[in-house]
Structure formats: C-alpha cells, structure tokens
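WARN no homologs supplied; continuing
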Amino acid sequence: MPKEFSPKVITANALIEGDVVYLTADDQWTRCLSEADVLTDEADADLRLLQAEAQSELVVGVYLTDVIPGIDGPQPAHFREDFRRTGPSNYNHGKQAELNNV
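OK structure emitted
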C-alpha cells in the first residue's frame, strides 16, 4: 500500500546568493518559509516541482520537503530543513541573528 502524501513545500537555493528559498502560491521565490505554498495534492506537487525545476536561471537544487502546517505557516518536519531555514550556525549572523532577536 502506498504511503499517504504528506504536506510539502518546494524549496531550492537561489542561484546567485545561495540563500534557501521557497516557492509561493503565485510562483515567486521567497526566503521566508511562512510564505511558502503548502502542497497537499501529490499530482499538483509533482507538476509544480517540474515547473520550479525549469527555473534554472533563478534556482538550483529544487526539491519537495515535508512540512507541518501551523498557525504561523508551515514548519519544517525534519531537523535538516530547520537548519537550512535558519542558515549557518557557526556564529550569530544573517538569519541566525534575525531569529535570535525576535
């Protein structure tokens, strides 16, 4: 029996800056996971993934990742994605500084 499709978002890295980005409902790329489009239909997710992969002038390493829908938007379902979302953890800068000052 196939595994039930769990909610996902499309993520990648911005081609020039290297930042982690997420695909929004209006097919734009955002650096905020809370703005990502949560996909709940497998066929729709597969189609959107193909469309996102075609944007090679903007992003690299496009893939679907599991999320947990929440009041404040989607949250990472796996610790790896939480690390990607917050950026490097070797010292307090960039996204780390922004998250710690909230």
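The chain has one domain: 8-100.
OK
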